[in-house]
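Methods — Computational structure assignment.
A single polypeptide chain was analysed. Its primary sequence is given first, followed by the predicted tertiary structure written as structure tokens.
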Amino acid sequence: MNTVGIRETTTVNVGVMGNDEPLSGVREYWHSDELGINLLSIRTGPMVGKQNFTITEITLGDPDVQLFALPGGFKVNDQRKNPPISQ
């Protein structure tokens, strides 16, 4: 599976936020076009600390239909409105 990685580094200059030294932050993403999601996302900086979001287990294919079954006694109430008919 092919992925594309992007790393962005930003720096807040001295005094912009009351800071007495430059503040740097890094955002890194590894994206899979095939899946349409980021498989890895890392954010590091003085305001967020270090955050890692990683897809560690994924199953390709259709999900089990039972995951979408309504519990007993519930029914679907479709409240979407039909679009007006153009003339």
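Note: Strands lie at 4-12, 23-32, 37-45, 49-54.
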